[in-house]
Amino acid sequence: MTASVETAIAPVSPEFFTPVTVPADSPLELFVVVDTEEEFDWSAPFSRTAVGVTAIEDVRRLQAVLTRYHAIPTYVVDYPVATTASSVACLREFASRGDCHIGAHLHPWVNPPYVEPMSRSASYACNLGHDLEQHKITQLRAAIIENFGVAPRVYKAGRYWFGRTTAEILETLGFDVDASVNPHMDFRTDGGPSFEGFSVQPSWFGRQRRLLELPCTMGFVGAARRMGAALHRAASRKWLEPVRAVGVLARSGALNKVMLSPEGNTCAEMQALTEALSRDGVRTFSLTLHSSSLKPGCTAYARTVAERDGLLATIDRYCDYFFGKLGGVPGTPAGLFDRLLKDSLS
Q: pLDDT at position 10, please?
């Protein structure tokens, strides 16, 4: 098999999805999705040989925090994690107790078949063409079934790509939930998709059956948040980089783009985002992070033990706020799919 990287393969638009109506009186629900993957240098060229998974053992620290709040994370695992005995044993221990769910996470450059050229564009699997993308996801799914003993229901693409080919493949392979969409983000300069104009609300997609899109929780806070997308785009223009316009807006309190993640976001920012979105009627919130940030030195978000412990403390404080002050409840993506599908058919 040979492959060439294609560009902008069948991207999706917001109209591709059908919004799901979550009752306004529903409690706020928090999902935790962990990109569970190998350690590699994010600033270096992609490599097929950087497949170490030593950080997976440190996932125990995160699991201990979440267990206190009865939160069940979904570890979306990639091929190195799914095929390494030590990482499989660690995560199977949690899964056997019902303390986590196992999903799928595709890093194309370390997932067979290895036929595409190595490039940043090729790191977005939707650029590989339908057949190669399907071969890779199929092999990942098979490895998870063989080594974890479960068929993954939740899929999250590495690098936040999602194309029409992805939707078709997930439907064919029996997945129920996709968690790849990252609203308000634009990866086109890197060869990826744009999610500008996409909603943080869950939505349906699929031709022959319904699948659920559960996006990352990303949004704007500040006095100018109603103009957030347009104003942030304007401030991000290259000619304004010397004056750091985006930072000026954030420090002034006018506008700040925040992701519900302890990686690069403070607990106060995450709380502000939650309150702003809940006022807009959002009831579902997805907290995300990378497994490699749980081992000091593997990512820029946790270079030291102190920074790693700070990241865990941020998660702890946010959970205390969400489940305590807001009266929120923990949920899982698969559980949300089951509930919404049942409600839609009743």
A: 64
Q: Is the pLDDT of residue 2 over 50?
A: no
7 versus 311: the higher-pLDDT residue is 311
Q: What is the pTM of this model?
A: 0.93
Q: How many domains does the chain have?
A: 1
Q: Which domain holds residue 52?
A: 26-217+284-345
Residue 274 lies in a domain: no
Q: Closest Cα partner for 37 from 49, 22, 23, 54? A: 54
Calculate mean pLDDT across residues 90-108: 97
When the pLDDT of each residue in the chain is averaged and rounded to a whole number, the result is: 90
Residue 267 forms part of a structural domain: no
Q: pLDDT-based confidence at 21, cuts 50/70/90?
A: confident
Q: Tell whether 242 is covered by a domain.
A: no
Q: Decide if 261 is inside a domain.
A: no
Comparing 124-133, 254-263, 266-275, 307-316, the range with the smallest average pLDDT is 254-263
Supply the CATH number for residue 77's domain. 3.20.20.370
- Would you state the pLDDT for residue 213? 98
